[in-house]
Amino acid sequence: MSNHDSPSWILFNWASFAIALLMAVIGIWLVDANVWMKGYLAMSMLLLVNASISLTKTIRDQHEIQKLHNRIDDARTERLLKETELA
User: Fold this and answer.
1) CA-based angle 53:58:62, to the nearest 5?
2) Quick check: helix, strand or coil at residue 5?
3) Residue ranges of domains in the chain
4) Under a CB-based contact definition with an 8 Å cutoff, are residues 28 and 46 in contact?
């Protein structure tokens, strides 16, 4: 069973990301603050984006590992059931 996202969903996610990033950049550009404060806000925003991407990847990886463990456990259980049926 393949669980692929539709092209529309992928486009929606990229568009949402691009719009949010653009809005944050414009907001930082227009804020009434000195260059150091704008730089701090820009670095904070980039770190937040990086941390969000890393977190979603980690959550996905943990989910995939759990699915693999469940499949291994199911295969072991099925093998044990077959062995007890043969005995």
Assistant:
1) 150
2) coil
3) 7-86
4) no
The pTM score is 0.61
pLDDT digit string, tens, across residues 14-50? 999 999 999 999 999 999 999 999 999 999 999 999 9
Q: Which residue is associated with the tokens 């992928």?
A: 10
- In contact, 24 and 44? CB cutoff 8 Å: no
Query: Under DSSP, is residue 53 helix (H, G, I), strand (E, B) or coil?
Result: helix
| Residue 72 amino acid letter | I
Residue 62 has pLDDT above 80, yes or no: yes
Q: What CA–CA distance (Å, rounded) separates 69 from 75?
A: 10
DSSP-based three-state secondary structure for 74: helix
Q: How far, in Å, CA of 53 to CA of 63, rounded?
A: 15
